[in-house]
What does this fold into?
Amino acid sequence: MKEKDIEKLKRERDEYLAGWQRTKADFLNYKKDEAARVGETARYAEERLLLSLLQVIDSLERAEEQIAKDTEAGKGVAQIAEQARSFLKSHGVREVKAKGQHFDPELHEAVGMVAGGESGVVAEEVGKGYAFGDRLLRAAKVRVYK
It folds into this structure.
């Protein structure tokens, strides 16, 4: 082989190698992006499920308030409600603290105002708020001091 042919083959080799390296890098980036997208989709689905479960827990807690705790029905409702709360906790859902806190529009939804306390402080929690990881699932419904 001539020196000229060898140089041509080396250039071709280098071009093919560079193309392969770019393709490999593109594929690795695709895999990383796809894994992130799948993870985000799964997290969204889990959030939707947990948000739906919050409505059930609200109903159970209202039933707990209405049924005497010393009856069999009251004990059963309380036990089911506790199981549901434990389920939420095990999945990383936590209650948003509201009463006595300064009103935060990112965590609280004001549904009314009351007189008698420090202005801008949550006086009463009307509905519980919940967070999941770093996201708010549902804002706490609150009444705030004027």
Summary: The beta strands are 93-96, 108-114, 122-127, 129-132, 135-138, 140-145. The mean pLDDT is 93.
